[in-house]
Write a structure and sequence with these properties.
By secondary structure, the chain is of the alpha+beta class. The protein is built from three helices and eight strands.
């Protein structure tokens, strides 16, 4: 058991903390239309394709499959994640735990705790 941190440990800790804060900020920011009761979440969900591949650069990609008010995301490593809408009334933000996905137009922002956020394009 190591009690004295190595020099790089503080950078990793800061990155993890910043990633967590980014996820929390994304989850806490409300959709203006949902807050005012305007707009139709089903129309926004329908704007997200049922099945789409997004290029994240550097040979990375994600596949997003829409399923009701949730999505299934599969990354280039073959890992799959079922992400519910967050908050439940949301139609473009999904996530739980250390995972978050924001889909707007032809772009998807994919955030995974401990990794650099990726902006991916359809």
């Amino acid at each position: 058991m190591r009690l004295i941190p190595r020099p790089g440990d503080t950078a990793i800790l800061r990155l993890c903390m910043l990633s967590s804060l980014a996820f929390l900020a994304t989850a806490c920011v409300g959709d203006q239309q949902a807050q005012t009761g305007q707009g139709d979440a089903s129309q926004t969900i329908a704007a997200i394709p049922r099945h789409a591949t997004y290029d994240c650069g550097d040979g990375d990609w994600i596949v997003i499959e829409r399923a009701g008010n949730a999505v299934r995301l599969t990354d280039a490593d073959g890992e799959s994640y079922d992400l519910p809408a967050s908050p439940p009334s949301q139609a473009s933000r999904f996530g739980e735990g250390g995972l978050a996905l924001v889909v707007e137009g032809g772009e998807a922002l994919w955030m995974k705790a401990g990794k650099q956020p990726a902006t991916c394009r359809r």
